[in-house]
Amino acid sequence: MHEPSRANGRYGRRIVWLGVCILIVIAGYTAGWFWLAGRIEGETRTALAKMQERGIKAECANLAVRGYPFRIGLYCDRVAFAQPAQAVSAAAGAFRSAGQIYDPMRLVAELDSPATVTVPDGGQIAFDWQTLRASTRLTQTLPESVSLEGTQLKVGANGRPQLVSAETFEAHMRPNEADVDLAASFAGLVFDPSVVGDRTVPPLTGEADLSVKDGLKLLAENRADNLRGQSGIVRKLTLQLGEKGALILSGPYSIDQDGLIDADFKVSISDPKALAVSLAQVFPEQENKIKQGFAGLAFLGSKPSLPLKITKGKATLGFIPLGGIPPVD
Which range of residues forms the domain containing residue 281? Predict the structure, then answer.
């Protein structure tokens, strides 16, 4: 008669202990999350203070770490940076970053517009966008990948609100053994006529896919911004003018220590007739020459290709010399 009651009692105690264990796990997880949040906030404030000691003013207004329970990230109502010695400063809207607790090696961040950048000559560049996001996947050494993407970008300067605009843009970087792969694209890129010599340029669409040889070494030695001594391969570089017609370039390249380019490219033209119309719109004074030149390309097919050879900065397209290319930095 007492067996069912004893069994029910044991079952009830198990439920209670299970509930206690769950509460302990939740309490431990919560304590760990807030400990890590405090660590992130403290290290960020320390880093900002060290920058101040070096004469660099960096601001993260109302710095906070948020995202409990499943995310953790740094938040700022406003960000700003200034280096008075170089007469450079920048400021932007709210900043948000986050990493998922179950995938802590992947980080994402967002930055709100508008932003302003002041350059040494006293000019001010203004940026506005609809969305701007960055993401990275970390490893024990270098990031496995870094990406940036945005929409509805507008760039102005010195009170002029829209000198350049783009509907979409993105850029990606990832290690590939000792090399670094780079990719980028944009669409709806428009220039105000004042930026391009009062010419009318149709909306541009572009895409780039290339690899930099020994790119990881260049990054480690902080030489990525020095093009001299670099080499690699352009898998595809496309520039489309208007809705149709594009130039497509591919091939290996190298830059010597004097900044002179050597390359063995192939240049292809997609829809030559449409491209000729767009180029004639940009360079109306050369309309007849453009149409005559592209009419000759029609004999090579619907997608003609020509070799572009560059030797010590001297470029030749097919058998036509194009002149010299100045040394790059």
Answer: 138-329
Do 83 and 204 fall into the same domain?
no
Measured distance CA(81)–CA(91) in Å, rounded: 6
Q: Which one-letter amino acid corresponds to residue 173?
A: M
pTM confidence score: 0.86
Alpha-helix runs per DSSP H in the chain: 3-53, 215-220, 272-282, 287-297
3-state secondary structure at position 218: helix
Residues 93 and 149 in one domain: no
Are 247 and 143 found together in one domain?
yes
Domain identity same for 262 and 186? yes
Can you tell me which residue has the tokens 């010695």? 85
- How many structural domains is the chain composed of? 2
Cα(256)–Cα(228) distance, rounded to whole angstroms? 6
Q: Is the CB of residue 231 less than 8 Å from the CB of residue 252? A: yes
Residue 251 contacts by C-beta under 8 Å, 6 or more apart in sequence? Answer: 233, 234, 263, 264, 265, 266, 308
pLDDT digits (tens, 9 = 90+) for 20-44: 888 898 888 888 889 999 999 999 9
Co-location of 61 and 171 in the same domain: no
- Between 51 and 143, where is the model more confident? 51
What would the two tokens of residue 216 be?
A: 């990881």
Instruction: Give 33-87 pLDDT, tens digit per residue.
Output: 899 999 999 999 999 999 999 889 999 999 999 999 889 999 999 999 998 888 8
